[in-house]
Amino acid sequence: MTSATTHPVHTGPHLPGVALLMGLGARAERSAGPVPTGFVPFVFQGVAMLRKLTRTDNLIQQFDTVLRTLVPHAAQPSRPSPAVKARDGDMDDAERRHAEGLMRINHTGEVCAQALYQGQGLTAKLPDTREQMEHAAQEEIDHLAWCDERLKELGGRTSYLNPLFYAASFGLGATAGAVGDRLSLGFVAATEEQVGRHLDAHLKALPAGDRRSRAVLEQMREDEAHHERWALEAGGTRFPAPVKLGMKLMSKVMTQSVYRI
């Protein structure tokens, strides 16, 4: 087993396994700084260490992320939903169904974003770019979980087409990352710009009484704008108008199909 250690963390031999696994990352970070990308904490004789991830580890990690993305209610957010601070007003059945359709579109959009970041993170060449992709992907997991939770509150479900859109987005992301980081970052910026426009439109289209969905979308809009700025500031290529038009047409196919399916 190939391993690398940084400031071992003594946890004691009697600490329960589950509690140890839950607290290991935080303990290691307090003691030795953040866990480097490409390493994973493990325990040897009561001491927390770092082991370099193998190809098998990465495959398992990717598969776990796929499941958390596609299985309903499996994604766990790192931040509480913005909806917890909002209370809905009155909505009739038609308004509730419309809100459900809009949030299903937003959920599928986050599935696509998660797949895009995963594909790009897999093939990105620069470590800094890869780390930023992973951080952005975690924020997209938050969005995914928030939309999933809101759909459940509205009595709705996620789209049956999610696996198809996930596969297509993952392939696009991996291809962009393999070509080069500037193109990959440019693709992120163009995608986030498109997502931002969708969110703006949905904020206007939501029923007035759907304040909980509105709170979620407003926070998502702020995060997506940050992702777009980061991608451009990191050296991403600005895509020409014809490319953005093509992306817009592809996005339209997704939104029209997912609203009901």
From TrEMBL:
CDD domains linked to this entry: DMQH
Pathway(s): Cofactor biosynthesis; ubiquinone biosynthesis
Positions of Fe cation 1 binding: E110, E140, H143, E224
EC nos: 1.14.99.60
GO MF annotation: an example: metal ion binding
Keyword terms of this UniProt record: Cell membrane, Iron, Membrane, Metal-binding, Monooxygenase, Oxidoreductase, Ubiquinone, Ubiquinone biosynthesis
UniProt cofactor(s): Fe cation
Primary location group: membrane
A cellular component term, taken from the record's GO annotations: plasma membrane
Entry-linked PANTHER family: 5-DEMETHOXYUBIQUINONE HYDROXYLASE, MITOCHONDRIAL, COENZYME Q10 BIOSYNTHESIS PROTEIN 7
The protein's name: 3-demethoxyubiquinol 3-hydroxylase
Protein species of origin: Modicisalibacter xianhensis
Lineage: Bacteria, Pseudomonadati, Pseudomonadota, Gammaproteobacteria, Oceanospirillales
